[in-house]
């Protein structure tokens, strides 16, 4: 039940067309996913992470701190990146992630996470992939910028399911 509810919260969007031919990851390829974070997401993330900063729960506190309203946890937004990678490369080992938080994200805003392959190299029958990682709101406003490294067992991308 919980897994079904978690999966139903994702809107999944791919940057390539569906075909029966396996598609290999190449430098420049972009994988993306959109998501709106809800009050429940904030509560569940806070419960798991023990991050109870009032910026996420108290509108008045957030406004007094200079924000429009309550904020989505930055690390919750950044969790889109390993999700995108693992959905195309099951078993991927996430090695590192750098993040720069550029703009606040408010509950209910649509966020588009984009992961772009910038470097690929083979090492002992596995692949080390470097990705540019970015999140946008309102289609073009950069909210998170960074880079990730992952170890992939293959460069063959899984199409996955479109989740609604």
UniProtKB/TrEMBL annotation:
Q: Which GO terms describe its biological process?
A: fatty acid biosynthetic process
The cross-references to Pfam families, in alphabetical order and at most eight, read: MaoC_dehydratas
The entry's protein name is MaoC-like domain-containing protein
Which positions make up the signal peptide? Answer: none
Question: Which positions fall inside the MaoC-like domain?
Answer: 33-125
Per its record, what are the GO molecular function terms?
Answer: (3R)-hydroxyacyl-[acyl-carrier-protein] dehydratase activity
**What would be one Gene Ontology cellular-component term for the protein?**
mitochondrion
Q: Which domain of life is it from?
A: Eukaryota
